[in-house]
């Protein structure tokens, strides 16, 4: 299964109701409990759906036997996927755009701060107040994102989020060190 909203589970991960079981050969079922799945009677498009005992379904697709964790799936017979809702996926995509916007705004403030610092002149109080207000707003936006979409398995997003968050915090500390607010 290739879908941006679904990820393949590792063997060690606990199955949850709603996970998709993909049997080799194209057949799929919906995991409900350790013993029950929701399954089509056959691969035929007109075939009805039914509740079925897990062992019965696996018997149809060879013997059911657990694998070692190094083998991954149930001995190559199935892959199990967990999907997020389309709304969550779209919200995360919008959050990614928001994170890029925050990153760009932070780059601008960092650049202005660096120019002022390199001039070795005293930084104007108005600039510090403006930057501090901007950074406080960016930090607030980041905290909203962090509580929503960046509780994620996507490690690169966590790193990106954390790097921006720490840059905001460091720049705020630098501003406070230059001029107490």
Task: Give an account of the 3D structure.
This protein has helices at residues 54-60, 86-118, 125-148, 155-178; strands at 6-8, 20-23, 28-31, 36-40, 49-53, 78-83. Helix 2 runs parallel beside helix 4 and helix 3 (125-148) packs antiparallel against helix 4. It has 2 domains: 6-83, no CATH class; 86-178. It is rod-shaped and about 80 Å long. The chain is α+β, with helices and mostly antiparallel strands and 181 residues long. The protein has 4 helices and 6 strands, in the order βββββαβααα.
Strand proportion? 5-15%
Strands side by side in the biggest sheet: 1-6-2-3-4-5
Taken from the alpha-carbon principal axes, the silhouette is rod-shaped
Q: Give a quick account of the main beta sheet: strands, pairing sense, barrel closure.
A: 6 strands, antiparallel
Low-confidence stretches: 68-73, 148-152
The counted number of beta strands is: 6
Task: For this entry, give a set of tags.
alpha+beta, six-stranded antiparallel sheet, 49% helix, rod-shaped
What is the topological layout?
Layout: E1 6-8, E2 20-23, E3 28-31, E4 36-40, E5 49-53, H1 54-60, E6 78-83, H2 86-118, H3 125-148, H4 155-178
Antiparallel strand pairs: 1-6, 2-3, 2-6, 3-4, 4-5
Helix pairs in contact: 2-3, 2-4, 3-4
Summarize the structure.
With 181 residues, the chain is α+β, with helices and mostly antiparallel strands.
């Amino acid at each position: 299964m290739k879908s941006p909203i679904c990820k393949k589970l590792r063997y060690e991960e606990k199955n949850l109701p709603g996970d998709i079981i993909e049997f080799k050969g194209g057949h799929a079922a919906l995991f409900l409990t350790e013993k029950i799945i929701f399954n089509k009677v056959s691969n035929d498009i007109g075939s009805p759906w039914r509740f079925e005992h897990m062992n019965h379904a696996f018997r149809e697709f060879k013997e059911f036997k657990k694998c070692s964790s190094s083998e991954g799936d149930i001995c190559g017979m199935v892959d199990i996927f967990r999907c997020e809702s389309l709304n969550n996926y779209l919200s995360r995509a919008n959050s990614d755009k928001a994170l890029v916007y925050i990153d760009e705004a932070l780059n601008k403030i960092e650049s202005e701060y660096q120019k002022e610092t390199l001039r070795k002149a005293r930084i104007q109080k108005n600039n510090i107040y403006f930057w501090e207000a901007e950074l406080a707003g960016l930090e607030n936006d980041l905290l909203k994102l962090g509580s929503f979409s960046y509780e994620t398995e996507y490690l690169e997003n966590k790193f990106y989020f954390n790097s921006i968050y720490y840059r905001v915090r460091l720049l705020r500390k630098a501003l406070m060190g230059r001029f107490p607010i």
